Amino acid sequence: MDFFELILNRESVKSYDPHRPVESDKIQKILKAGHLAPSAANRQPWRFYLVSTPEYLDKVRDCYHKSWFKKAPHLLLVTGKKDLAWTRSSDGFNSLEMDIAIAMDHMILQAESLGVSTCWIVAFDTEKLHQLGIVEEGEVVYAITPLGYPEKDFKKHGNKVRKSFNEVVKFL
Ligand SMILES: Cc1cc2nc3c(=O)[nH]c(=O)nc-3n(C[C@H](O)[C@H](O)[C@H](O)COP(=O)(O)O)c2cc1C
Q: CA 148 to CA 83: how far, in whole Å?
């Protein structure tokens, strides 16, 4: 698929078939896309946790209240540590959240290109999640996405709700 078509077609999917896991070669490619993402000073301050076992799925599912989230066969957690990321000496700006967003976007677009659905999630219960004992001290979960295929009756809405192009783009 053409890259622009891919971007146009991607939607946040809120429907997952719990009985249809993603093929391991596709999972591998999605994770590789994150692994290859660029980061400030190439620090790669992230970790990617692919949760697919019933034991861990149960735990992570409890950290976000939506029923569709609880049906996904895989949950991908993207974490980072501030002290691993690059900091600008002039003003203390730390690139961690920017780096994480790039890795996440790489994986989401790679998934889309393989026909695997995703939904970027940040409204999870951080306290609950950090108490699960999955991540290390100082490591923060920045984003989660389900990975999976939609349920049978699911249809994309095909409607990109965005501000007008001219409101956000300025040609000077
Ligand atoms: C940083 C970020 C955080 C998001 N967090 C959530 C979330 O917690 N729950 C949710 O249902 N959707 C979440 N979304 C999905 C957005 O609501 C969605 O991307 C936006 O409405 C545009 O729709 P689209 O992804 O279908 O184009 C998030 C998206 C982004 C980029």
A: 33
Q: Is the pLDDT of residue 1 over 90?
A: no
CATH number for 92: 3.40.109.10
15 Cα–ligand 1 center, Å: 14
Partners of 147 in the beta sheet?
74
Q: How far apart are CA 62 and CA 51, in angstroms?
A: 13
Read off the pLDDT of each residue in 100-112 and give the average, rounded to a whole number: 98
Ligand 1 binding pocket includes 122 (Cβ within 6 Å): yes
Q: What is the mean pLDDT of residues 49-72?
A: 98
Say if ligand 1 is within 6 A of residue 11 CB: yes
pLDDT at 171 over 90: yes
Q: How far apart are CA 118 and CA 147, in angstroms?
A: 5
Cβ proximity of 85 and 94 under 8 Å: yes
Q: What is the mean pLDDT of the chain?
A: 97
How are strands ordered across the β-sheet holding 46-51? 46-51, 74-80, 140-147
Give the count of domains, the chain: 1
Q: Which domain holds residue 10?
A: 3-168
pTM to 2 decimal places: 0.97
